[in-house]
Amino acid sequence: MDLDQILIDANTSEAAHITQVADELNIPRDRVEATAKLLGEGATVPFIARYRKEATGSLDEVAITAIRDRLAQLAELRDRRNAILKSLIERDLLTPELHEQVLAAKTMAELEDVYLPYRPKRRTRATIAKEKGLEPLADLILAQEIADPEHEALAFVDPEKGVESASDAIAGASDIIAERISEDQETRGAMRKLYQAASTLRSRAVSGKETEGAKYQDYFEWEEPVYKIPSHRILAMFRGEKEGFLSLKLSPPEDEALELLDQRFVTGDGPASEIVSEAAKDGYRRLLGPSMETELRQELKRRADAEAIKVFADNLRQLLLAPPLGHKNVMAIDPGFRTGCKVVCLDRQGRLLYTTTIYPHSSERAAQEAAQDVYSMCRMYDVEVIAVGNGTAGRETQAFLQKLELPNKPPIVMVNESGASVYSASEAAREEFPDYDLTVRGAVSIGRRLMDPLAELVKIDPKAIGVGQYQHDVDQAALKQSLDDVVISCVNAVGVDVNSASKQLLTYVSGVGPTLASRIVEYRNANGPFKSREELKKIKGFGPKTFQQAAGFLRIPGASNPLDASAVHPESYHIVNQMADDLKCSVKDLIESQELRDKIDLEKYVTDTVGMPTLTDIMSELAKPGRDPRDKFEIVQFAEGINTIEDLKPGMVIPGVVTNITAFGAFVDIGVHQDGLVHISEMSDSYVRSPWDVVRLHQRVTVRVLDVDLQRQRISLTMKGLRRL
């Protein structure tokens, strides 16, 4: 067979893939095709969702991402199919029937089942038996038409080949039968269904490791049907096994598996059938069962990874889009007991003005000196708000500050400092603050995080922020792709001030990337603030294609053209200019006057390439140019007098803020340095399908303490019967 005629052409397969994806996602084919074309041309997901609504039928980022990912999966399946076909052709094994089977396989598992009998493999018991000439005997026994297998086996006795007796011959033939059964495509498909439907995951403690692995004690004697296991338990048990504390077994009842094989391969009740049945049992225990267990483990891991990654991505999105305080003069404090509290003062643009260390917790005299220092800094730097990290000594530092009579009475806000230490040791922090130590950088990060969470958090590896579950156990490539998608989505949804954004923030702008982000900052430092979007084209590498992808997401407040500060894309400026001309006013007048905008008949501006979706978006931007989609900032105050876990008592009703959401519930910061858990069963008086249906990250909530486990440092909370904020 000619190789070029056999292998699947990428262009031919793409059309089929588009049709398949359209069917699977229930999206019209022309929209999937348009999306695939745009992605193939290098367009980003945010750009397509925002500025190509006419082409895609207004598909959102979720749908566009699903199309992108599914097309990639199908392309991977096509490439594997071609690799298998090439291997079969090179070894002269490809027949028309086998070719059809390879083409018909719809999943990677089915494709590998087809290829399994032909895959190059190490010498096995079956291949050794075949080398001894025992395959014809295996065929005779498997046909189950011979009355006396022992007699037939005598003809295959050959001491020179290592077959000393009829029993040796039958044993070798049984090995061939066992492998043949375990590699049979239909049998593997049926066994796969049985494993998925009837398997139980059994977890046991590894003998002698009970004390060392106490954190896994819930799983020392655990059994659960695989179809019921939630992702967090799968990942917990797999981690326990990986660390050597748990032993896991995954299988359906053996009698059901063996019955399935007997029904497929045992056709009589004579001696030959007994040999086949025993060979099937051996093949199941030695080959097919372990293969299916490995495959199901991988499937459970993929399922658990996907759920955990979704949890992480959902939480990260909420965290990145948390309400910003905005431009304020901030005093930020990284609290500590023995080493003191590192204090920084930042201006409204987040620039570091001053830093010092105070010791409010070491002695009465030191506390008095600290109070005077804080008072002086508040007056000198016109402090409008004080940010305090929520780590060690956080509540104590907050209590110290609340007792002071400070100028302007700035509010004191507890800030989640997860990841601040990671940032302080990062290359980005060293580059920005080469002359300051880690504690100063950490305090700056805390203050800036309050001012604009998104701008600051993009400098930190999302895995260090602490809003996921088992993030180090899941597929790291898939996790990175998902988290990058979220960061890119959030950055572009909010928009970026090109004249104040950090290199890290600019990196995530559609079409930019790290190299261009560095060049933007270098140009800005050398030439001063950008005066227009057009000026971006002066940067090396910022060509027409990049400009098209990025311009709509880069904002220039105060530009001579007011549209440069909005989300209106430069490619649509002519539409707004025409609207203004038709009303005999300026673009600025159009932005400032609702009365003028009300006179616009959008139908008049519809063309072959510009439809109502784009025109509607333009009108929304003119009404609120460059609007921030994030909620308004609110300060959370914890209960007074409750600073440590020892202060808690069952029955207490106290305020808190949601810090993390998982499939099994939500973690709430109640101001005692240890988050409490509101289990999903305690989130509402009515049934809760998902915690995300009830709470969001950074939401203020009221909770009641159910239980406090001091030894394990665990706090159980409930929201039942309490008013939601």
**Unreliable segments (pLDDT under 50, ≥5 consecutive)?**
none
Average pLDDT, all residues: 91
Give me the CATH fold name of one domain: Nucleotidyltransferase, domain 5
Q: Tell me the helix content.
A: 40-55%
Q: How would you describe the oligomerization state of the chains in this entry?
A: single chain
How many individual β-strands? 15
Q: What is the structural class?
A: alpha/beta
What is the level-2 CATH architecture name of one domain?
2-Layer Sandwich
- Give the N-terminus to C-terminus distance in angstroms: 70 Å
CATH superfamily of one domain: YqgF/RNase H-like domain
The spatial strand order of the largest sheet comes to: 6-5-4-7-8
Task: Tell me about this structure.
This protein is of the alpha/beta class and 725 residues long. Among the domains are: 3-118, Arc Repressor Mutant, subunit A (Orthogonal Bundle); 330-451, YqgF/RNase H-like domain (Nucleotidyltransferase, domain 5), CATH 3.30.420; 513-623, DNA polymerase, domain 1 (Orthogonal Bundle); 645-718, Beta Barrel (OB fold (Dihydrolipoamide Acetyltransferase, E2P)), CATH 2.40.50.140. 49% of the residues lie in helices and 11% in strands. It is built from 30 helices and 15 strands. The strands form four sheets. The chain has a five-stranded mixed sheet with strand order 6-5-4-7-8, with helices on both faces. A five-stranded mixed barrel has the order 11-12-13-15-14. Strands 2-1-3 form a three-stranded antiparallel sheet. Helix 10 crosses helix 12. The radius of gyration is 33 Å and the shape is globular. It starts with a helix and ends in a 7-residue tail after the last strand.
